[in-house]
Amino acid sequence: MNRPVSTDAELVIDAHAILGEGPLWDASSGTLVWVDIEAPAVHRYSPSTGETSTLPLERPVGAVAIRERGGLVLAVQGGFWLLEPDLSTLHQFAPVEANVAENRMNDGRCDTVGRFWAGTMGVDARPHAGSLYRLEPDGRVERVLSGVTISNGIDWSPDGRTMYYVDTPTKRVDAFDFDPTTGTISGRRVFVDLADAAGSPDGLTVDSEGFVWVAMWGGWVVRRYSPDGRLDAAPALPVAQVTSCAFGGPRLDDLYVTSASIGLSAEDLREQPHAGGVFRLRPGVRGRRPNEFRG
After folding, report:
1. Contact of 156 with 164, CB cutoff 8 Å
2. How far apart are CA 108 and CA 154, in angstroms?
3. Where are the domains of the chain?
4. Of the candidates 241, 245, 294, which has an alpha carbon nearest to the alpha carbon of residue 271?
């Protein structure tokens, strides 16, 4: 599997997730929120206590965002749902492809204005079945991109003027010009071509210096790219299926990384006993506090 020789990653949750995804730091509670898509649940991990609480769900959940008024907004199969501050009351907010049973929601994130962007994909990853959507604070939903295969990592530059986006099978990270006022995108271009890299791009995050961190599914690493697209670092993980990453901790200098165990053989699992775990790296740079949904 082209495994890197060494890693400084610390296992913080030996979760054995089937498809761990969507890490997000909740500064108000000092916890890391993340999801398991295939064993549908929202997990909340407290680094200060080492404890994890879990909210099981009845449908696959691809991503979550912190709500400005408390609680979470969830991108689940069929649309966007709101989890109230009591963390037990859940109700539908805006349908998305609710009648397309063969599709589900995948990765997502909020922009600086508080809109939640999340995409869809076919549950069988069939080509061009998905789209990228933008959820407005008032509940309106707009399709921004169509013909997507696996809508994945998304984040913005520190000035909010560039949006980075992954459609995994393209083996690229693309960049768009972004208008924060209107939420429109234009000028799509290749930010990083990963055709020759081990693995495929999955989730991503942008740090406080504007560098882009990309989780590499099947690549055993996260890769850090400068704003002009140069590879800066590639810290290794002890698992192959690296799914996403997010900065957290009181100083936002911990990089949390999720992973998956789905599809691994018995031999793979012997080599990777912590597949599906959540890991922490301390790369010496800081992230940014995640944007919150303003609906």
Report:
1. yes
2. 6
3. 10-281
4. 241
CATH fold, domain 10-281, is: Neuraminidase (2.120.10)
Could you confirm whether 202 is annotated as catalytic?
yes
Phi first, then psi, for residue 168 (nearest 5°) are -50, -50
Catalytic one among 36, 174, 202, 254? 202
The residues that bridge with 241 in the sheet, in sequence order, are 217
Question: What is the C-alpha separation between 14 and 107, in angstroms, rounded?
Answer: 22
Express each pLDDT in 104-159 by its tens digit: 999 999 999 999 999 999 999 999 999 999 999 999 999 999 999 999 999 999 99
Contact (Cβ atoms closer than 8 angstroms) between residue 33 and residue 42: yes
Q: Tell me if the pTM is above 0.90.
A: yes
Report the 3 state secondary structure along the chain.
CCCCCCCCCEEEECCCCCEEEEEEEECCCCEEEEEECCCCEEEEECCCCCCEEEEECCCCEEEEEEECCCCEEEEECCEEEEECCCCCCEEEEEECCCCCCCEEEEEEEECCCCCEEEEEEECCCCCCCEEEEEECCCCCEEEEEEEECEEEEEEECCCCCEEEEEEHHHCEEEEEEEECCCCEEEEEEEEEECCCCCCEEEEEEECCCCCEEEEEECCCEEEEECCCCCEEECCECCCCEEEEEEEECCCCCEEEEEEECCCCCHHHHHHCCCCCCEEEECCCCCCCCCCCECC
At 46-105, the pLDDT tens digits run 999 999 999 999 999 999 999 999 999 999 999 999 999 988 889 999 999 999 999 999
